[in-house]
């Protein structure tokens, strides 16, 4: 990563998640959407332009990323989209006071394994408050050793794989990047696992 502020770059995962949102644009008007780790906010901006009520968020410790969110909104004529500092794994007044949400977006948030549990802690908190919500996330496969399966089980979450071809995101040009190497992008939807007896 050339820039230590990797939230200022449009990563291939963001393009794939934006494509998923575009493919499902008819279901977005009126939906309440929160993007976490938004950076330049491509998925959140697409959702907002498709009629969703969007809140963008990134770490409160990364003011440059929060500014990127604001700049993306202004460039896309979305000056009223709120931008919040939400740090994964931290219960903050901003997190506690969030209005109800239907969809959480996260593109390439599963980047550094040391953050995986903090991310899923935050997702679990949000899904507990919004039991019918879903977390739509894309990620780049960087290591066969990295897995969130055990953490999903620990936090009573389940995931379902979404094939990229099912929403036209399996084209090489869509997730292309000037970064070297081949990109293997995956998408999944995470939700609360049904507890036994329900």
Structure, described:
This protein has helices at residues 12-23, 42-49, 63-75, 93-96, 116-129, 149-154; strands at residues 32-35, 53-58, 83-85, 103-107, 134-140, 157-161, 185-192. The protein is α/β, with parallel strands linked by helices and 198 residues long. It has one domain (12-192): Vaccinia Virus protein VP39 (Rossmann fold, 3-Layer(aba) Sandwich), CATH 3.40.50.
Kindly list the characteristics that best describe this protein.
protein-arginine omega-N asymmetric methyltransferase activity, Rossmann fold, 7 strands, 6 helices
The neighbouring-strand order within the major sheet is 3-2-1-4-5-7-6
Give the number of DSSP strands.
7
Enumerate how many helices there are, as a single number. Answer: 6
Give the end-to-end Cα distance, rounded to a whole number of Å: 45 Å
Give the ordered list of helices and strands.
HEHEHEHEHEHEE
The poorly predicted ranges are 175-182
- Helical fraction equals 25-40%
How do you describe this structure in short?
This protein has 6 helices and 7 strands. The chain is α/β, with parallel strands linked by helices.
Fold topology:
Layout lengths: L11 H12 L8 E4 L6 H8 L3 E6 L4 H13 L7 E3 L7 H4 L6 E5 L8 H14 L4 E7 L8 H6 L2 E5 L23 E8 L6
Parallel strand pairs: 1-2, 1-4, 2-3, 4-5
Antiparallel strand pairs: 5-7, 6-7
Helix pairs in contact: 1-2
């Amino acid at each position: 990563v050339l820039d230590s502020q990797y939230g200022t770059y449009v990563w291939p995962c963001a393009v794939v998640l934006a494509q998923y949102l575009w493919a499902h644009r008819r279901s977005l008007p009126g939906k309440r959407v929160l993007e976490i780790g938004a950076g330049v906010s491509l998925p959140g901006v697409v959702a907002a332009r498709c009629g969703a009520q969007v809140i963008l968020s990134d770490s409160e410790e990364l003011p440059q990323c929060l500014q990127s969110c604001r700049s993306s909104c202004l460039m896309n004529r979305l000056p009223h989209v709120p931008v919040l500092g939400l740090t994964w794994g931290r219960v903050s007044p901003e997190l506690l006071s969030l209005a109800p949400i239907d969809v959480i977006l996260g593109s390439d948030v599963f980047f550094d394994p040391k953050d995986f549990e903090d991310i899923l802690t935050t997702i679990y908190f949000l899904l507990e408050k919004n039991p019918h919500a879903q977390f739509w996330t894309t990620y780049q496969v960087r290591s066969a050793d990295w897995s969130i399966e055990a953490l999903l089980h620990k936090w009573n979450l389940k995931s379902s794989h979404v094939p990229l071809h099912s929403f036209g995101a399996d084209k090489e040009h869509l997730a292309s990047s000037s970064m070297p190497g081949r990109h293997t992008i995956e998408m999944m939807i995470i939700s609360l696992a049904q507890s036994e007896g329900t």
